[in-house]
Specification:
The chain is an alpha/beta fold. It has 2 domains: 5-123, 3-Layer(aba) Sandwich (Rossmann fold); 128-195, Orthogonal Bundle (Arc Repressor Mutant, subunit A). It is built from 9 helices and 5 strands, in the order E-H-E-H-E-H-E-E-H-H-H-H-H-H. A 5-stranded parallel β-sheet has the order 2-1-3-4-5, with helices on both faces. Helix 3 (65-69) links the parallel strand 3 and strand 4 (77-81). Helix 6 crosses helix 8. The relative contact order is 0.10.
Length: 198
């Protein structure tokens, strides 16, 4: 059975917390153990829950992550999101990320126990059902990931909106997805780089 990674989300922004939680909900092996917005509650939460990771939105430098990570009892890994994150070297307990870090990279860091190395699972298409996707469906996934509407997709493919909807229904069934948002996240995560054009 795959390991489940417990993560605590820390930010003074409710919008940021909501968005990050929605991203994590798509990962079966990542559990959001806590969400906090009060800098004073950070230490108690880490001591009480001991999550595998704490993702800290520290753009405003409100949270003393370095001080907390230096304590002997600190067993979690901190993923520190700052304006300049990524330029500082990672340490054994603190991983730095910033606005250029993609969702896929963040998920990869968590699932690799804090390593930035690309896992074999994430290196290619994860779902075995992906092999059943047609060239047209592949292109539709790319366009949905780019935020295109059904009308725009139909125009670009030279087909009707009804045909596009039928393709999307087929894609949902093949990939085990329930809605367009999940398909958009799937597409952004799996359809980047060299596979961008079919």
């Amino acid at each position: 059975m795959a390991k489940t990674y417990r993560i605590a989300l820390v930010s003074s922004s409710k919008l940021f917390l909501d968005g990050l939680r929605k991203i994590m909900e798509f990962e079966a092996d990542i559990e959001v153990a806590a969400e906090i917005s009060d800098p004073k509650a950070l230490r108690d939460m880490v001591c009480d829950l001991a999550p595998d990771f704490i993702f800290v939105d520290n753009r405003e430098r409100e949270f003393d992550v370095d001080g907390l990570a230096a304590e002997d009892g600190f067993k979690s890994r901190a993923i520190l999101f700052t304006q300049s994150g990524g330029s500082e070297p990672d340490t054994e307990k603190v991983i730095h990320v910033n606005f250029e870090t993609t969702t896929s990279e963040l998920i990869n860091i968590i699932k690799n126990g804090g390593s930035r190395k690309q896992s074999a699972i994430n290196a290619g298409m994860k779902n075995p059902e992906f092999k059943r996707i047609t060239r047209t469906e592949f292109r539709i996934i790319q366009l949905i990931a780019a935020g295109e509407s059904n009308r725009e997709i139909a125009r670009k493919l030279g087909s009707s909106e009804k045909t596009v909807k039928a393709h999307i229904t087929s894609i949902f069934e093949k990939l085990g997805l329930d809605n367009r948002y999940q398909l958009m996240v799937y597409g952004k995560r799996n359809m980047t780089g060299g596979d961008a054009e079919v």
